[in-house]
């Protein structure tokens, strides 16, 4: 595998940072999925294994004060934005010290303190919320950018086009990021999307838009870095990250065998974002192994914290409820 030419690859500190963040996401989701399959917590879980480069590439190009919305497959976005892995794991376990006080689980994570404004279970649900937040940022005269991640299953939701239109006509600082992993559960995006696709649709509204290799964290970072300051000045934009999940959509959905062939999944495994990054940098095998071991230890500690943390008290049932 040849290494792509990227100007940012000369920064070894950045190399370590990006690889550590992707390794943290990978370790967290592997551990969380094992705990889920073992029956340690209920609900469901949607892993983004194979898509780590999108979360890390986008968020690494942002300023600390920028804001992020996510979707049901949002662990990676939350971790990249700085949510504490122990608080996140406790949330999956339904513990009172979880990032959503044990009430949200995997699909409703939030940590306003680091600018992660929430993951949403409803397909496309975060898109209008991001535009509303960007409107508030604009009216206050703040300089934050609002990023919203969504999957290709939201491409044909009408709310996306209403939101892009409002962002364009009002000049709002919002960056739309579509993680196109090729499947909305089991339906291919090629089948479900007519015309020339999302990038051309976004350009029709006057947004700057481009498709990027979502398996290459440096390409993702470079794309967002080139767009984000224009977005900050009121020029909304869209990035379509072409990526792939190496695991099933959710519970009861194997990685292959129902709607994806083993050969297809195996071919994409060759473009695992951690492997792509390793081939593109001069990090040694020993350096990468050290980072991976440190992150696995961090996540093991998060698991132990979650297992021992207390559950919410019954009196918490009616707190944080609208109108209560």
Can you walk me through this structure?
With 324 residues, the protein is α/β, with parallel strands linked by helices. The chain has one domain (7-250, 279-309): Rossmann fold. Helices cover 44% and strands 11% of the residues. The chain has a 6-stranded parallel sheet, with helices on both faces. α1 (12-37) packs across α3. The longest helix has 26 residues, at 12-37.
Helical fraction equals: 40-55%
Biggest β-sheet strands, sense, barrel:
6 strands, parallel
CATH-defined topology:
Rossmann fold
CATH class: Alpha Beta
The rough form would be described as globular
Q: Specify the CATH homologous superfamily.
A: Thiamin diphosphate (ThDP)-binding fold, Pyr/PP domains
Q: Could you give a short description of this structure?
A:
With 324 residues, the chain is of the alpha/beta class. It contains twelve helices and eight strands.
SSE arrangement:
Elements (H helix, E strand, L loop, with lengths): L11 H26 L14 H8 L7 E4 L4 H7 L3 H8 L23 E4 L6 H15 L5 E6 L6 H13 L3 E7 L2 E2 L2 E2 H4 L5 H7 L3 E6 L3 H16 L4 E6 L19 H8 L3 H8 L4 H24 L16
Parallel strand pairs: 1-2, 1-3, 3-4, 4-8, 7-8
Antiparallel strand pairs: 5-6
Helix pairs in contact: 1-2, 1-3, 1-12, 2-3, 2-9, 4-12, 5-6
């Amino acid at each position: 595998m040849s290494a792509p030419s990227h100007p940012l690859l000369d920064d070894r500190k950045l190399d370590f940072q990006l690889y550590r963040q992707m390794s943290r996401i990978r370790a967290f989701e592997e551990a969380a999925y094992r705990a889920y399959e073992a029956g340690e917590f209920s609900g469901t879980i949607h892993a983004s294994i194979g898509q780590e480069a999108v979360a890390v590439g986008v968020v690494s190009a942002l300023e600390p004060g920028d804001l992020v919305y996510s979707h049901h497959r949002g662990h990676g976005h939350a971790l990249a934005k700085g949510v504490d892995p122990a608080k996140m794991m406790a949330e999956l376990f339904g513990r009172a010290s979880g990032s959503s006080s044990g009430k949200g689980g995997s699909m409703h994570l939030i940590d306003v303190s680091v600018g992660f404004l929430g993951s949403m279970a409803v397909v496309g649900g975060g898109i209008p919320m991001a535009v509303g937040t960007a409107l508030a940022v604009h009216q206050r005269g703040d300089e934050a950018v609002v990023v919203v991640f969504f999957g290709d299953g939201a491409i044909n939701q009408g709310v996306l086009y209403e939101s892009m239109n409002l962002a364009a006509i009002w000049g709002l600082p919002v960056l739309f990021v579509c993680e196109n992993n090729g499947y909305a559960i089991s339906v291919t995006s090629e089948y479900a999307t007519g015309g020339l696709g999302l990038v051309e649709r976004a350009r029709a509204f006057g947004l700057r838009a481009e498709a990027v290799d979502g398996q290459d964290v440096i390409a993702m970072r470079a794309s967002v870095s080139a767009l984000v300051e224009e977005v900050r000045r009121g020029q909304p934009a869209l990035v379509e990250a072409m990526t792939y999940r190496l695991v099933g959509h959710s519970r009861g959905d194997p990685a292959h065998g129902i709607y994806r062939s083993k050969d297809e999944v195996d071919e994409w495994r060759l473009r695992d974002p951690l492997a792509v990054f390793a081939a593109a940098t001069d990090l040694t095998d020993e350096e990468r192994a050290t980072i991976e071991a440190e992150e696995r230890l961090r996540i093991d500690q998060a698991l132990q914290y979650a297992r021992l943390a207390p559950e919410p008290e019954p009196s918490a049932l009616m707190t944080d409820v609208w109108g209560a």
